[in-house]
Each structure stands twice: as structure tokens, then as C-alpha cells.
Amino acid sequence: MSSLKPEEIAGILAVIGIAILGLIVKNQSKIDNISYFFHSLLPSSQNWKIYVIIALPLILFINYKINSWIKGRINKSEEERELVRYSSEDIKRLFEIDLEKMYSLSKVTDFINDLKGMLKYVRKYAMLKHYSSRLKEKIKESKIRLNKLVESEKEDMLRDRVHELEDEIRILDENKRRKEFEEGQADDKRLNALHVNDNPVFVKSNLSEKQIDLLLNNGYSYLNEFCVNHGKIIQVLVKPTLNHSKTHTFLVWSVKRYLNKLKEVSHVQDFDTVGADITFKSNGEKFAIEIETGSLLSKKFQLSQKVDSLNEKYKDGWMFIVSNKNLLPKYRKFGVVTSRSEFPKTLKKLLKTATQ
Questions:
Q1: Considering its fold, how many domains does the chain have in total?
Q2: How far is CA 244 from the centre of its chain?
Q3: Whole-angstrom distance, CA of residue 216 vs CA of residue 194
Q4: Over 70: is that where the pLDDT of 66 sits?
Q5: Which whole-number Å values give the CA distances from 157 to 152, 161, 162, 164, 336, in the listed order?
Q6: pLDDT for residue 224
Q7: Which of 46, 139, 206, 305, CA to CA, is 20 to 30 A from 182?
């Protein structure tokens, strides 16, 4: 092959320069203008030096750009490999986290969000896609842990609420006991004001509603009976004394009040267990009254002893008052006996007979 002439070499360099320039300059009009400029110079072989002068800097520039592009690609590839390496380490650290040691809902929630963000990231890189399945499994495990923590927190909330309610109940109980104690003290004062220890019977009409409630709450109960003192049936509140009935307690109270009204009667006393139920004096003489509701009729020996004792102590100065008229014939054979309604007349006869 014959050697190329200088002008031919220059032309070839110009063509190469234009071709490479076309790869860089994407504006077709500019390429056409440059190409036209070179073609205008080609007919003259004397211009080959000009071709060389023009093409050589262009080729050098193109060489620089190519080297820069290759170096950039190499650096980018190295950066990507470094990024993937660090990402792999971060992903592995996520897999090593022990979910059972995470007790905060917010921390588990943030961890799930981190896993989801990492899953979205690894799908962009082929070198990291093999972590996708493990990330999905870790997300699933994290959600299970989150649900357990939610249930545990609900249980804790319920337990705390139970403790709160227990504390509220305890406080209410303490307040109730304090109130009951204070009310009890107030009731004691009101009961003392009524002198309940000395008064087993209260006339209902003489009491206020609060006093009635107070007495009913402290062993008293309603009773409708004929009253010797009032001469009619009255409603009272009675608290039985010792083992006596309500009627017996009421009759003792009623007879005592009647006796206390009489000018000729003094030293009226009642006894719960020993001796006659009521004793008093009139004109210096001692008298006794025995209240009977029929309970002693079945205890003949005890009744006989009581009668003997009364005859010995008071001779003709004592009598029975029966709670029911039907009992009159049953007690008449033991001594003087009267009903409630006839008590004033019988008492007058008893006092008159005893003083003769």
C-alpha cells in the first residue's frame, strides 16, 4: 500500500473529528455547519496543514471527554458497590435485632417503618434483592410483636383501671365508715337526749320523724295497745326489757305512769327480775302489782312460788293485771286479778281494803 499523502491524512483526521464531534454535539445544524466548513477546504490539497491544526485540538478535547466519562463510570460503579456494601451491613443489623427485647409500641412501629423503607430500597438494586424475602419475614414478625404489645398494653390498662376502681371503692368505704361513725356519734347524742336507757316505751305522737327512725334503728318497734294511763289504745314504740315481751314491757310502763299521777301513791318502782313487777306505797303501806301475759300458766310450780312470795310480803296488798280478758278466770283462783280497763276501779278497792 502506498503511503498516504499529508493532505489525505489531514482529511481523514478531519472526518474522524467530525464523526466524534457528532457523538458529543447533538445539535444537527451545528454539525452540518462544521462539516460544510471542512468540505469547503477539501478541494485544495494545499490546505492540509490547516486540517491538522484544526483537527488536532478537537481530537485532544474529545480524548479528554472520553477519559473523563470512563473515569466517572468507574467511580460511580465503585460508589454503588460501596453503597451496597454498607446497605448490606445495615440490613444485617436489622435482622439481628431481638424483637422480644422491644417493649415500646412506638419503637416497634418505628422499626416496622424502617424495615418497609429498607424493603423499598433493596428492590432498586439487583445486588440487594435477595434480602427482600427476609425483610418481609422480619416485618411479619415485627407486626406479631406489635400486636402482642398492643394486647399487653390493653391488659395493663385494664389492670390499672381495676386498681383505680379498687382505690375508689376503698376511698368510698372509708368515707362511708367515717360517715357512719359520725352519724353514729350523732345518733348516740340524740339517743342520749331521749334517755333511752330509762325509757323502754315512747308514744309515737310525741316523736318527730327523725326520732322515730332513730328508735326503729336501735331496737324499738311499733305496738298498738290499750294504755291504762291514757284509758285508750295508743301507738307506741317499745324495746322489750330483758326476756320480757313487748306487751309486758308496755304494761309495766303504762301502769307506772298511772300510779305516778295519783296523789295517794308514792315510791313507785319496777323490777326486771326480782320480786313483783311493780311496787309502790300508799298511806305508809307497801303494795305490789304483777303483770301477766299468760306465760306462767304453763309453769305451775313457778307460779305457785310467786303467789306464795307475794302473799308473804304483801298479804292482801297485791294483785294481777292480765294483758287479755280471757286470762281473768285462769288467774282469779290465785288472787285479786283485773283487766286493763278495770284496773283503776280494782286498784281503788285494793287500797281501801288494805287500809281497813
A1: 2
A2: 50
A3: 13
A4: no
A5: 9, 6, 9, 10, 82
A6: 95
A7: 206
pLDDT in tens, 129-159: 888 888 899 889 889 888 988 888 888 888 8
Coil, helix or strand at residue 2: coil
Residue (of 141, 147, 153) closest to 97 by Cα position: 141
Query: Of 96, 127, 144, which marks where a domain is finished?
Result: 96
Q: CATH number of the domain that 206 lies in?
A: 3.40.91
C-alpha grid cell, residue 135: 425483610
CA 27 to chain centre: 81
pLDDT at residue 40 in the model? 56
With the CA atoms of 26, 30, 35 and 36 taken in that order, what torsion angle do they form, in degrees rounded to the nearest 10? 160
Cell numbers at residue 156, please? Answer: 395493663
Find the domain containing 219 and state its range.
201-355
Look at residues 4, 8, 16, 27 and name the one whose alpha carbon lies nearest to residue 56: 16
The predicted structure's pLDDT at residue 274? 63
pLDDT of 74 > 70? The answer is no
Quick check: 48 pLDDT over 70?
no
> In terms of DSSP bridges, do strands 232-238 and 265-270 run parallel, antiparallel, or are they unpaired?
unpaired
Max Cα–Cα distance, the chain, nearest Å: 193
